[in-house]
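Postdoc handover notes: sequence design on the structure in folder B. Input C-alpha cells:
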C-alpha cells in the first residue's frame, strides 16, 4: 500500500509467482504505525547516516522504527524463502531508492531502511523488486533461486 493510499498491485507478482509460492504481504510503514494515507518519507544522508524522514516535515523520523521492525520480521522469517520488495521505496527499495542530502538534492541511490536490514541479517535470502520481476528471465531466475534456497534450508534442518 502506497503512502497516498493507492495500491501498486503487480500482476506479474500476484499471478505468476502465486503459481509457485504462498504470499505473506508486509507493509513496514503500516506495521510501525503510520497510517494510510500517510505523509511521504524519503531517505536523507546526514553525518554519514541514512535517515527515513518526512518529505514535508523532517521531524518525522521513522528510521529506528523501520530498523526495529525489520529485525523483528527477520526473527519470524523461518518459513520465508524469498522476498519481493517495492522498488524505489524508502523502506523497501533494494538499492534503487533516491538518497537525498539535507538540502534536498539527490546524491545517489541506496536501499530502503527495512530492505537494508533484511539483507544484512539474511544475506543469502533471495531478494528482488517487483519491477525486475517484469523481465521474464529475472522472474524465472528468482523462482529458481527461491527453490534452491528452500532445498538448502530443508537440508540444513
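Designed sequence:
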Amino acid at each position: 500500500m502506497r503512502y497516498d493510499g493507492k495500491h501498486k498491485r503487480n500482476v506479474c507478482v500476484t499471478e505468476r509467482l502465486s503459481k509457485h509460492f504462498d504470499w505473506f504481504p508486509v507493509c513496514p510503514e503500516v506495521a510501525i504505525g503510520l497510517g494510510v494515507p500517510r505523509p511521504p518519507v524519503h531517505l536523507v544522508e546526514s553525518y554519514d547516516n541514512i535517515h527515513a524522514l518526512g518529505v514535508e516535515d523532517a521531524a518525522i523520523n521513522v528510521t529506528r522504527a523501520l530498523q526495529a521492525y525489520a529485525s523483528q520480521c527477520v526473527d519470524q522469517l523461518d518459513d520465508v524463502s524469498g522476498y519481493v520488495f517495492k522498488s524505489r521505496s524508502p523502506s523497501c527499495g533494494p538499492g534503487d531508492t533516491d538518497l537525498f542530502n539535507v538540502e534536498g538534492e539527490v546524491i545517489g541511490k541506496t536501499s530502503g531502511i527495512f530492505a537494508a536490514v533484511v539483507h544484512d541479517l539474511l544475506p543469502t535470502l533471495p531478494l528482488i523488486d517487483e519491477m525486475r520481476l517484469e523481465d521474464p528471465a529475472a522472474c524465472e531466475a528468482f523462482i529458481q533461486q527461491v527453490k534452491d534456497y528452500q532445498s538448502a534450508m530443508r537440508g540444513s534442518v
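Context for whoever picks this up: The longest strand covers residues 41-46. Don't rerun without checking with the PI first.
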